[in-house]
Amino acid sequence: MSLLAPFFLLALGALAVPVLIHLTQRERKAVVEFPSLMFLRKIPYESVQKRRIRDWLLLALRLAALVLIVAAFARPFLRGGQLAAATGGARDVVVLLDRSYSMGYGDTWARAQQAAAQAIASTTAADRISVVLFADNAEVTLRSTPDPSRAVAEINAASPGPGATRYGPALKLAGSLLVESRLPRREVIVVSDFQRGGWQPDETLRLPAGTVLSTVIVEGVTGSNLAVTPVALQRIRVAGQPERVGVTAGVLNRGADTIAGVPMQLEIDGRVVQTLPVDIAPNASATRTFAPITLTAAHTRGTVRLGTAAQSPDALPLDNVFHFVITPSAPVPVTVVSQGRGDANLYLSRALDIGEAPRFEASLQAADALAGDALSRARLLVLNDVPIGEVAAAKLVTFVEGGGGLLLAAGPRATWPASREAWLPARLLNPVDRTRGTPAKLSGMDYGHAVFEPFRGPRTGDFSGARFYSYRGLAAAKDATVLARFDTGEPALVERMAGRGRVIIFASTLDLSWNDLPLKPVFLPFIHQLGRYLSGFREQPAWVTVGQVLDVTAAEVAAGATTAGRAAQGPRTVLMPSGQRRDMPVPIAAEGAARPSAAIELFEQGFYEVRGSGPDAGPVIVAASNLRLAESNLERMDPNDLVVAVSGDGLTGSIAGQDVIPDEAQELAQRFWWYLLFAGILLLIAETVLAQRLSRAAR
Questions:
Q1: Could you give the CA distance from residue 263 to residue 322 in angstroms, rounded to a whole number?
Q2: Which of 63-67, 138-142, 238-242, 334-338 has the weakest average pLDDT?
Q3: Pairing mode, if any, of strands 581-584 and 572-575?
Q4: Are strands 332-338 and 380-384 parallel, antiparallel or unpaired?
């Protein structure tokens, strides 16, 4: 016999109370009325009567009641896993059913449903059952029910999805369900094919102490296993002709047999344009290149699909298709504002004209163009040594905070209104003349920043060869970032975020008037990187993977949405591959902050379409979502590795054939305290009745 709370035994000292009550002499005195006591002498009363216990039965009842109540609070139990199990301790069972797409291999899913149903059938009426379906994420479909038929119905209604296997989220969710359980025994049953790629060791992942983790390995029938690999796109541009794209697709054979004559189809916008046969050796891959296609639409939907080989049907057909979206290259609109000499923009314009990723569409404007609608058509604005007035500065602030990019080249004519100097990343100071003596050089570049990241490696660009004969002094703001300095320590390139846009000040010119940087090989990639960064350009991928998040705002920028259009963007509607429609809420920003980006999580295989509403609907966004190729690899892990890794106290599901049950669970299963407390209450009731009878008899 063991005690869960032995310190309550100290309360046995209360047994002395009934003894003292019994030893207390009680005398019944008759009151005699007397007219006056003033003439009587007071004589002290002395008793020599010996105290003794008269009601032994009453004393025994009181002592026994106290002993039983104290023992109940001490919570006694008989230690031993077999005894605890024999007492009928109820279980809290969590069934984790893997629904990743690898479970669709052959009849694996049907076997998994049958195995889960058998595990549920072994429960008793006192048990509680929870069902969790998991792949990339875990979802509770049924929580703590005593009805096995409901749990089996939930399992039979489920089906494999497009997600990949991840055991971590499922086990964490099971642990959170069991930690709240009050039942004496807890068990987790994992039904899965135990794909090796689904487990990433996590030292922080532990199930509650005493939890039994059982694993059920499900194996499907053997068969071929082909998968389409991600496609490669080759863009072909010929002057004066529409852009063309060549598509190269691959097939991976994970089986042990050669598969010959598999038809590979290329579908464009739902129409088959070409079919090529392919032969794949065991555990090998093969590729085929289709004829180039001409891009005529903003979003061309492409699909590579495998047919069925006559001699060996594929047992896992979900990965036999790959979707992608091809969008014609859209140039980034850039407005260059300048004045003065005609050659001031020569090197800048030529650098922008030969950009490829992305292409820049530059237009030259005079300073007075800022008063018109030039800003509404641009995503990047370059102020090449121009004075800015109060009205133009207000428009530039609105342009940048709405998501535009601004590059300010501070030459001798560059000015900015004093009322808005606090908005700039740096305050413009007087020019510094270095024509006499040694010219200044660039140094202290922040190669961890996106602007200089391409130049961090060896032989990727040397800025130290450029000589600066003059530059503007800059007083950087406290919250600004200095990206580069001159060898004198003065800032040369300063950046600051403003709303959803960015501003960069370059402390010199972009021509040969103050420096020879345009003559250096590094000038061309430097301008391209500045334009890519400030315009917020992100090359939209031709496809994404199920479980990833699609940044709708970034996709609209890549599709050519203007700053004004993005600011006025209303609600959007998402058409999912299954045909369902869902409204995207308009992101609401905090007061004084820019509106956050809109994003959606992709959890289906196929094409997603996002459309805006109203006059400022913006461009239509189409995204292709595909399965994770690694999930088609059916190589299995050892389930014991999973059991050992998540056992919180280092104990696995069973030791020497006996369930490992903690003391708290054993005591809760036996519940001796309840019987002791009930017996103590009964004795107190009996003691009360007996005391009343003895009192009446003594009168």
A1: 14
A2: 238-242
A3: antiparallel
A4: parallel
Give me the count of residues in the chain: 699
Torsion angles phi and psi, residue 649, rounded to 5? -105, 15
Which of the two residues, 359 and 50, has the higher pLDDT score?
A: 359
Spatial contact of 362 and 352, defined as CB atoms under 8 Å apart: yes
Residue type, 262: V
CB 68 within 8 A of CB 669: no
Q: Cis link prior to 358 (omega < 30° from 0)?
A: yes
pLDDT in tens, 174-233: 999 998 888 888 999 999 999 888 888 888 888 888 888 999 999 877 778 899 999 999
Report the C-alpha gap between 458 and 263 in whole angstroms.
Answer: 46
Residue whose C-alpha is closest to residue 337's, from 419, 413, 418, 422: 413
404 CB neighbour count, 10 Å cutoff: 29
Residue found under tokens 């979707």: 323
The token pair that represents 102 in the structure block: 């690898």
Which pLDDT does position 260 carry in this prediction? 86
Q: What is the C-alpha to C-alpha distance for residues 569 and 614, in angstroms, rounded to an integer? A: 8
454 φ, ψ to 5°? -65, -15
Q: What does the pLDDT read at residue 126?
A: 85
Specify whether the CB–CB gap between 558 and 429 falls below 8 A: no
Round to whole Å and give the CA distance between 348 and 350. 6
Tokens (6 digits) for 321:
């298709």
Pairing of strands 2-3, 244-253: unpaired
> For residues 357 and 355, what is the distance between their CA atoms, to the nearest angstrom?
6
Sorted by sequence, the CB contacts under 8 Å of residue 24 that are 6+ apart come out as: 51
Q: Quote the pLDDT of residue 616.
A: 61
Q: Mean pLDDT check: name the lowest of 357-361, 400-404, 626-630.
A: 357-361
pLDDT tier for residue 594 given thresholds of 50, 70 and 90: very low
